[in-house]
Amino acid sequence: MFPDPRIVVSTAEESLPLAIRELELDFGPEAKVEAIGPEMAVVTAPSLSAQEVADRCEAAPLVFPRHLTVEVALLDADADLDRIAAAALAAVREAALPPSLALQVWVSGPSSYEFGPAAVFGAIAAELDAAGYAVARSGRRHVLSCCLTPRGILLGLNETRDSLSDWPGGGVRLSKSRDQISRAEFKLEEALTEFGLDLPAGGNALDLGAAPGGWTRILRRRGLRVWAVDPGDLDERLARDGQIKHLKVTAGRFLHSNRTVFDVAVNDMRMDPKLSCELMVRVAAHLAPGALAVVTLKTGSREVLATVKACLEILTGPYEILHARQLRHNRHEITVVARRTDAPAD
Ligand SMILES: C[S@@+](CC[C@H](N)C(=O)[O-])C[C@H]1O[C@@H](n2cnc3c(N)ncnc32)[C@H](O)[C@@H]1O
Question: With a 6 A CB cut-off, is 268 part of the ligand 1 pocket?
Answer without folding.
Answer: yes
